[in-house]
User: Which sequence fits this backbone?
């Protein structure tokens, strides 16, 4: 048993060191999406840089929820928990919009524990109507982090992989301001775009949650890099069996 514990400790230390060196996502052969995403907005954080900033200020005893989506999938590699029952995840069931309502429930059940939910801007749109319920002050305060990369990342990742770097129907409205939506519901909202801003805003939000019963939405602007798809074997590239001509459909 002791030898196994030592092996696990060594492996976890090696993984943590490797994560510290990973700032960006690689492209598959034949695709250049991540390269183009970095070039388009070099001033924006990548998902991995944001997750490292988050981990620097997350309390050891916090309960965390995650959602479906590419940014949250990347983030699964970063948290480490010293106690059980601290991580709420949709797993492979795919319940889009899970992160926000699940962290609300976690706080109701654990009012003396800091809670932080995470979701991408696509998934958050599924359940963000709960902002109006939070604003009634019937529930204890929570902290919600929304990754703003202006896309349905998981879906785009699948199509860039299986359809030769093509995608459709994955872009989100650039005019939506999630922090301002929170403010409109009587909550606190803050928008950040650098690691330092993210650390400051998240630490302040958690403090406000625990000391003043405040609910805060932290909107985190990211570039559009995309990590690993959920399953590389879920689909295969289309294969042309026979050519279809318009004349084939005319009697």
Assistant:
């Amino acid at each position: 048993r002791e030898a196994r514990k030592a092996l696990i400790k060594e492996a976890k230390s090696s993984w943590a060191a490797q994560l510290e060196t990973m700032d960006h996502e690689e492209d598959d052969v034949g695709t250049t999406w991540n390269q183009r995403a970095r070039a388009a907005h070099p001033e924006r954080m990548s998902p991995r840089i944001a997750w490292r900033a988050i981990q620097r200020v997350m309390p050891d005893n916090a309960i965390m929820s995650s959602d479906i989506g590419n940014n949250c999938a990347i983030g699964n590699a970063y948290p480490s928990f010293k106690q059980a029952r601290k991580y709420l995840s949709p797993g492979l069931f795919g319940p889009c919009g899970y992160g926000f309502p699940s962290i609300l429930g976690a706080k109701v059940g654990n009012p003396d524990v800091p809670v932080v939910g995470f979701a991408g801007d696509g998934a958050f749109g599924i359940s963000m109507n709960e902002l109006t319920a939070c604003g009634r002050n019937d529930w204890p305060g929570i902290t919600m982090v929304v990754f703003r990369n202006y896309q349905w990342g998981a879906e785009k990742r699948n199509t860039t992989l299986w359809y030769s770097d093509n995608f459709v129907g994955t872009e989100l409205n650039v005019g939506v301001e999630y922090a301002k939506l929170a403010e409109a519901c009587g909550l606190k909202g803050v928008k950040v775009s650098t690691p330092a801003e993210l650390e400051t805003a998240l630490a302040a939000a958690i403090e406000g949650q625990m000391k003043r019963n405040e609910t805060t939405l932290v909107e985190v602007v990211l570039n559009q890099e995309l990590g690993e798809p959920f399953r590389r074997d879920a689909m295969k590239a289309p294969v042309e069996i026979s050519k279809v001509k318009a004349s084939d459909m005319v009697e």
Summary: The chain is about 40% helix and 10% strand. The two ends are 75 Å apart (CA to CA). The chain has a mean pLDDT of 92.
